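Q: Hi! Curious about what P22 coat-protein 5 family protein looks like structurally. Here's the sequence.
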Amino acid sequence: MTGNKVLTHDVVAKEAAAMLIEESVFIKSINRGREQEFEKDKAGYKVGESVRIKIPPIPIVTEGKEYSSEDASLNAQESSRILKVDTQKHVSLQFGAAEQALNLTQFKDRFLKPAIQSLATDLDADLLKRAIVTVNNGTLIGANEASPLAPFGRAREMLARSLTPTAGRIALLSSEFTNGIVDTSGTLFNPNAEIAKQYKEGYVGRARGFDFVESEHIYRQENGKTSGITVNGAGQTGGTLTVGGLSNGDEIKAGQVFTLTGVEMLHPLTRKSYGKLMQFVVLEDVTAGGATATLKIYPEITPNAIGANKQANANVSASALNGVALAFIGGDDDVIDQALCYTKDAFSAAFVPLKVLAGCEGYAFNTETMALRVQTGGNWVSDYEGTRIDVLYGFTMVRGNHAARIGRIG
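A: Let's find out. The predicted structure is below.
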């Protein structure tokens, strides 16, 4: 770009998109291939549009030579997630005649970079919170861990039990969290030049099967009530759980993880118990209106069989008995620092283009890596002109059990 060439909206949009990806650690590490399922030839999108993500079933293996139509029927039952475009964010930008006369390097340094850094920080923080509170696998760092990385070894076990692919596993943590696990020898991590290139300065190293990357946008889990909560009604299945032991006004927060005595995790293929309790996560904040409340949870409670009927995608040995206590990670009102271990396909996001509005100048940038709009418009009544960079996006957890959280209290 020469020094005397006037900057245009398309140039600014392309530069902004590239910078947004570079500045956003979490965005670049998760699946955004679902963007291809939105209509690419569409001029613009609106809040509320969505695509359905199909999750293949885990087939039952039938013993013997006889064909089982029952098993075949169960093996065809897919689950799904809805990826809804539900969030629009923007950052204001100076882009008048004086700014258009600058060369690209000057404009980037003085105006574009600060704006995109703010937008990227807000995006990453939003997506990370939405991801973390859907992850059911969790462990706390103990007071006397044998190794600073021992909790990440436990996270690795959790992912293995869920048959999570080993390739491309990432551990995302804050710099403070990193300092807490790196010993004085500085030899915990092995370098990986290719990953370092991808994550720039955020890359720390490789250990325990994870590529460790730093982000200062990690959400800290805020617990609500954890004590005295019990299952209210035996035989509950599915994605909700009715609980008792509450008082009016008690809060249970999204992201709280718990186990239920007698509800053990099954191997996804053999359907044999691992001998370990299944962990569940509360997906939405709940405020009790009385002694009971209904929690939306993940994963769904799906026993191997209900009565004589085998269930598709079974994940637990049995439903909880009435009165069983919910054993939460952490205590009442605890604030838990967290690291997130995951693979890219555990979560999915889509950035889709907004159209340039009538009467405005602008450009909608749209590729498979990012979509955004740069738009300038004026108000003749108030006599001002403003420019904004907008992003419209959606996010969903696809396989929350292909991720794990490591927490630290205090």
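A: A fun detail: The longest helix spans residues 104-132.
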